[in-house]
Amino acid sequence: MTGTPTLADLFASDPTRAERYVVQAGDLRIDFSKQPVTDAVLADLLDRARRAGVESRREAMFAGEHINVTEDRAVLHTALRAPRGAVVEVDGENVVPAVHEVLDAMASFATTIRADERITDVVNIGIGGSDLGPAMAAQALAAFGHPRLTCHFVSNVDGADVHDTLARVRPESTLFIVASKTFGTVETLTNARTARAWLVGELGEDAVADHFVAVSTNPERVAEFGIDTSNMFGFWDWVGGRYSVDSAVGLSLMILIGPDGFREFLDGFHTIDEHFRAAPLEQNAPVLLGMIGILHGDDLGRSTKAVLPYAQELARFPDYLQQLDMESNGKRVTLDGTPVGVETGPIVWGQPGTNGQHAFYQLLHQGTRVVPADFIGFATPNHPYRHHHDLLMSNLFAQAEALAFGRRNDDEPYRDFPGDRPSTLILADQLTPSVLGQLIALYEHIVFVQGTVWGINSFDQWGVELGKELANRITPELTGEPDPSLHDASTNAAISWYRSRR
Question: How many CB atoms lie within 10 A of CB 163?
Answer without folding.
Answer: 12
